[in-house]
Amino acid sequence: MTSILVQDLHKTYKGALEPSLKGLNFSFPKGAIVGLLGPNGAGKTTTISILCGLVKADAGQVQIFDLPQNAMNRETIKRLIGVVPQQIALFPHLTAIENLEYFGNLYGLKGKLLRSRIDEYLQIFGLEKNGHKEVSHFSGGMKRRTNIIAAILHQPQLLVLDEPTAGVDVQSRSMILQFLRDYNQQGVSIVYTSHLLDEAQTICREVAIIDEGKAVVQGDTTELIARHPECRNLEDVFLHYTGHALRD
Amino acid sequence: MLRLLATIRKEWLLLLRDRTGLTLLFAMPVVLITVMAMIEDAPFRDYQELKFDILAVDNDHGRLGKYIREGLEHSEQFRVIDTVKGHALTEQQARDLVNEGEYKICIIIPKGATGAIVSNANKIVNDISKRMGMPGVLPVSSRKDSLNVIVYFDPASKKAFKSAIHQALDNFLTQVETDLLLERIKQQLKKKDVPENDSMVIQLKAVGLKEQLTGPSQEIDVISNSVQHNVPAWSIFAMFFIVIPIAGNMIREREDGSLLRMKLIPGSYLAILTGKMLFFVAVCVVQFYLMMQVGIYLLPLLGLPKLVLGQSLLAAFIVAIGIGLASTSYGILVGTVFKTPNQALNFGAISIVILSAIGGIWIPLEIMPSHMQLIGHLSPLSWGLDAINDIYLRNAGVGHIWGHMGKLVLFAITLLCIAAVIEKRRLS
Q1: Closest in A76, A94, A108 to B13, CB measured
Q2: Which of B285, B279, B282, B289 is nearest to B12 (CA)?
Q3: Has residue A248 been placed in a domain?
Q4: Chain B residue numbers touching A54 (CB-CB < 8 A)
Q5: Helix, strand or coil, per DSSP, at residue A215
Q6: Which helix (H) or strand (E) holds B187?
Q7: Cα B310 to the chain's mean position, in Å?
Q8: Which residues of B touch A (CB under 8 A)?
Q9: In terms of residue numbers, what domain contains A15?
Q10: Quick one: pLDDT band at residue B118, thresholds 50, 70, 90?
Q11: Quick check: B217 pLDDT over 60?
Q12: A130 falls within a domain
C-alpha cells in the first residue's frame, strides 16, 4: 500500500508562462519517512498543495492511502493529512495553548480530549512551561515546535512537513528530528521537504528528487548514494540530477 | 457550530490582546462624533437661533428707524449696534467695519424714509376716499424717486445667510407700511359718523400658519439638529471603519500562513468566515450603542441638544446589525482583494470617506445637487443613515425599515460572493 501515489500530474497556473508540473510521477510507501526534494521552483509546493486538496491539478491522478484526491474524498483526505507549513502558521498574539485550542476546535476536538492532547504534545516538545506565553514571545525553535503540534493534534496518518527545521538552533532541530522518528514508529507516514540535504539523508528512508515539474529520480536514500560512486552523500546525488545552475 | 464559536473566541482574544487597537476602536469614534457634533452645530442651527451683531445707521430718525430697530431686537436674532466707542456710527464707518469683516451686516435707513412711507399710505387712502365720495385731504409728498434701506454684507457671507437677512428686513418694511396704511384708513374712516367708543379693530391675519407633526406619534417633537444628524451619521461612518481591522486581520492571516492552515483543516471555511463576521458585526453594534450613549449623555454636557432615539429600539438594533453586516463584508472584500495591509488601509480609508461624503454623512443629501443625490443614494452609508433617520426622526418602527435593511443585506451578500470568487481565482 502506498501513502502517496502521484501519476502524470500536470499543473499550469493561470497567467503563468511555464507549467509548474509536467507529468510528475512518484509513489511513497505507507509508514515510511520520505523526502520530497528539489531546487527552488521545482514544483514541490504545488505538489503538496495538490496532495492536500488546496489546488486542483489540470491532469493526472493523486491517491492518498489509495483514496483518489477528488471532490468526493477531499474532506476525508484532509482528515488523514497533517501539514506543517514552512511559515509559522500561528496567531502570534495568542498563547501556544490558545492557538492549539483553536486549531483543535477546527478539527472538531474539544474538552478533555483536546486538553490532554495539547498537554501531551507540549510535554513532548518541551513547551509545557511556556504554554501560556504568547507565541510572539517565543524563540524560533519554540515557534517551529508549536507549528508542528498544531498539525498533529488530530493525529493524522500522513504528516507533510515543509522545511520544519528552517532557522532553528541545533537543540530544537535535534528534538524535532527525534520526534519525527518516534512519530513514524507509531505508524505515521511522513513526507519531508527540505533544502538541508544532510538532514534529509539522516532521516529519510526514501527520497524523490523533482526538478522543473518532473521527478528526476526516486529510490532508497542509501541505494541512490551507492548507485553513484562519484557521490559521497545525498547532496552530491541531488546536484548530479539537478545540476549546478542557480535557480532564482 | 464549534468552528464558529472557536473563531469568535479567537477573534475576541486577539482583540483583547491588542489593547491599543481596542481603545482606538471605541475611543476614536467617540472623539469623532463629539468633535463633529460640536463643529457642525452652528451650521445646523437655524439663523433664528443665532444672534448676530448688526450695525444700524438711522439717518431717518423717524418711525421706520424706530420700528426696524425694535423689530430686530424683538426677534432676538440681532443685537443692534449704533454707536462705536461712544460715538454715533456714521455710514462710512459702518461700511468699513463690515468690509473688514468685523461685523456681518449693516443697514442704513435713509433720510426721509418714514416720510416716504407715510406719503405713500396717504396717497392710497386719498385715492380710496375719492372713490367712496369722501374728500381726500391727507398730505402727499411731491417726491418722485423711491428710497431704499441699504444693506451691506460682509463679502464672506454665505448666500443663505444673506437671503435670510433680506427676508427678515423685507418683513419689517412691509409691516411698517401696512401698519401706517391701516392707521391712515382708520383715521379717514373716523371722519365719517362713527361713535366715539368704536375702536374699530382691524385684524389682518384671518388665516395663520401652524406646524404639526407628520408622524404617527404626537408625544415627541424631534428636530433635525446637529446632534440628531451627526451622532447617527458619524456613528455609521465609524462603524464602516471596521474595514481597516478586518482587512488587516485577513491579510495578516494570509501572510502568516494561518489562513492556509485553516483551509487545510476539513470542514467549511464558511463557518470560520461567519464566526469572524459575527464577531465584527457585534463590535460594530457595540460601537453604535456606545456612540448613542455619547449623544444622550455626553453631548448635552457640552451644551448640545440631547439625542432622541425614536420609539422603536428594536428597529434601531436591527439596522445597527445591518450596517455591521455591510461594513464587515466590505472589510472582507478589501482584505481579499488587496495583498498588503498598506494597500488595504489606503483604499479602505479613502473609499469610506468618499462613500460617506456622497452618502450624506458630512452634509445631508437633501442639500446636495440633484445628480449627487442620485449617486448618494447608492452609498450603503446613506441606506443606514436613512434607516436611522426614519426611526429617530420619523418614529418608524420595525415594519418600515425592511427596504433599507434589504439593501444593506444584499450589499453584504454581493460583496461576500465577489470575495469568494476572487479567493477561488487566487488559489487556481
Answers
A1: A94
A2: B279
A3: no
A4: 260, 263-264, 427
A5: strand
A6: helix B159-190
A7: 18
A8: 2-3, 5-7, 9-10, 13-14, 17-18, 256-258, 260-267, 272, 425, 427-428
A9: 2-242
A10: confident
A11: no
A12: yes
Lowest mean pLDDT among A50-54, B3-7, B11-15, B319-323: A50-54
Helix count (H) and strand count (E) of chain A? Answer: 9, 10
What's A142's domain CATH number? 3.40.50.300
The CA-CA-CA angle for residues B373, B379, B385, to 5°, reads 85
Q: What's the mean pLDDT in A9-15? A: 86
Q: How confident is the model at residue B220 (pLDDT cuts 50, 70, 90)?
A: very low
Residues whose CB falls within 8 Å of the CB of residue B374, separated by 6 or more in sequence, listed in order: none
Give phi and psi for A194, each to the nearest 5. -165, 160
Q: How many CB atoms lie within 10 A of CB B204?
A: 7
Cα distance between residue B30 and residue B183, in whole Å: 59
Element (H, E) at A33: strand A33-37
Contact yes or no for A13 and B428 at CB 8 A: yes
Cβ atoms B12, B282 nearer than 8 A: no
Domain membership flag for residue A120 = yes
Amino acid at A53: G
Give the closest of A87, A94, A106 to B14, CB-based.
A94
Query: Do A95 and A127 meet the contact criterion of CB atoms below 8 Å apart?
Result: no
Backbone angles phi, psi at B293, to 5 degrees: -60, -35
Distance of residue B250 Cα from the nearest chain A Cα, in angstroms: 12
Look-up: residue for cell 508562462? Answer: A17
Cβ distance of A55 and B258 shorter than 8 Å? no
The DSSP letter of residue A135 is: G
pLDDT band at residue B50, thresholds of 50, 70 and 90?
A: low
Interface probe, candidates B4, B10, B262, chain A, greatest A C-beta count within 10 A: B10
Number of domains in chain A: 1
Question: d(Cα A153, Cα A97) in Å, to the nearest integer?
Answer: 12
Q: What is the mean pLDDT of chain B?
A: 82
**Interface contact B266-A110, CB threshold 8 A:** no
Please state, in angstroms and as integers, the Cα–Cα distance from residue B153 to each residue in A98, A188, B290, following that order: 68, 89, 43
Residue A115: pLDDT band (50, 70, 90) is: very high
- DSSP assignments along B90-143, one per residue: PHHHHHHHHHTTS-SEEEEEPTTHHHHHHHHHHHHHHHHHHHTT----S-----
Query: Do residues B232 and B389 lie in contact, with contact meaning Cβ atoms separated by under 8 Å?
Result: yes
Residue A128 lies in a domain: yes
Residue B25: CB atoms within 10 A of its CB come to 21
CA dihedral B161, B164, B170, B171 (to 10 degrees): -150
The burial of A40, by beta-carbon neighbours within 10 Å (0-12 exposed, 13-18 middle, 19 or more buried), is given as: exposed
Closest CA to B54 of B154, B175, B173: B154
User: B282 — alpha (psi -120 to 50), left (phi > 0) or beta?
Assistant: alpha
**pLDDT digits over A36-48, tens only?**
888 888 888 888 8
Predicted-complex ipTM score: 0.84
Q: Nearest chain B residue to A53 by CA: give it.
A: B264
CA–CA dist B68, B181 (Å, integer): 17
User: How many residues appear in chain A?
Assistant: 248
Q: Set out the domains of chain B in order of their start, with CATH numbers.
A: 2-44+225-427 (no CATH), 49-190 (3.40.1710)
